[in-house]
Amino acid sequence: MIVDSSALAAVLFGESDSARYLEALASPCRKFMSSVSRLEISIVVEARKGLAGTAALSELFAVAEIEELPFDSSLAEVAFDAWRRWGKGRSSAALNMGDCVSYALSKVLHQPLLYKGNNFSQTDVSSFLH
What we know:
By secondary structure, the protein is mainly alpha-helical. The chain has one domain: 5'-nuclease (Rossmann fold), CATH 3.40.50.1010. The protein has helices at 5-12, 18-25, 35-64, 73-86, 97-109; strands at residues 2-3, 31-34, 66-69, 113-114. The strands form 2 sheets. Strands 1-4 form a two-stranded parallel sheet. It has a two-stranded parallel ribbon with strand order 2-3. Helix 3 (35-64) links the parallel strand 2 and strand 3 (66-69). The protein is globular and about 35 Å long.
């Protein structure tokens, strides 16, 4: 499974559907997130919750056993192609840069994506929850 930052945000910010994402994160499959997505969620969490949020994020990574993968030039090419096809201003999916990063990792590793929201459902990426 590829974990998008939106799924972790739902958990860490106590959103109404957080249990759905916690259950998915507890599944026995391997879980991956790119270093770019890790940076993105780290910035968002610390901006909203301070150092306590950053500590909670680190704990969630450890408990869920999310493996961080480097983001290289081949992934960047796939992410750029995703933006061309599905990006904001180009498609109703309206993927932002962070979304394109998660999309690329999902496509390259042929793994379903755990995400919150409707934007990825308008692309050709597989959803972990469906």
